[in-house]
Write a structure and sequence with these properties.
By secondary structure, this protein is of the alpha+beta class. The chain has one domain: Aminopeptidase (3-Layer(aba) Sandwich), CATH 3.40.630.30. The protein contains 6 helices and 7 strands, in the order βααβββαβαββαα. A 7-stranded mixed beta sheet has the order 1-2-3-4-5-7-6, sandwiched between helices. It is globular, with a radius of gyration of 16 Å.
Length: about 200
Amino acid sequence: MSTDVLRLAEEQDAPAIAEIYAPSVTASVTSFELVAPGPDEMAMRIAKVLTHAPWLVLSRDHEVVGYAYASRHRDPAAYLWSVNTSVYVRADQKRTGAGRTLYRTLLSLLRIQGFYTAHAGIALPNDASVRLHEAMGFQPIGVYRSVGFKAGGWRDVGWWQLALRPRVGVPEPPLSLQEAKARADWSAALSNVLEP
């Protein structure tokens, strides 16, 4: 029986996270990056995300097997309530429920912070990612046709969107990560029973 732990990422997770992410860069068109970031670059990315939103890791038997995070959708101030989300799982942990567990918890934490909309860009084709996002409630909203050139061809990116809360009235600014972490429902969301 494995021991699963969901928690916020830390700097020392960067090597494992970089290793999980690398095949998406080097062995597929899932990521539009051309060079896989190393641990130092990944540590900087984690620190940047954690100033605004959660970066979660799932560890099984003390090994990081997947991660999910949210980042700013765009910089202009009117986008304050929207985030982009991503999830990556180690190859040997796919189809184990790790991706759903990470995403379900990430989306709960984003709701606690007060974000209104989550977006996901998926390089196409990627049936597994599309299935995961749609299972989590994301709806397709459009496709950027031939938007990136990688692995010898032009690639499309589909966009999916999930409403995190009803849009009524004038929204309050989202809570900072520090403010959200002080809430009781934050700890409850992180300690949910893991389900496949």
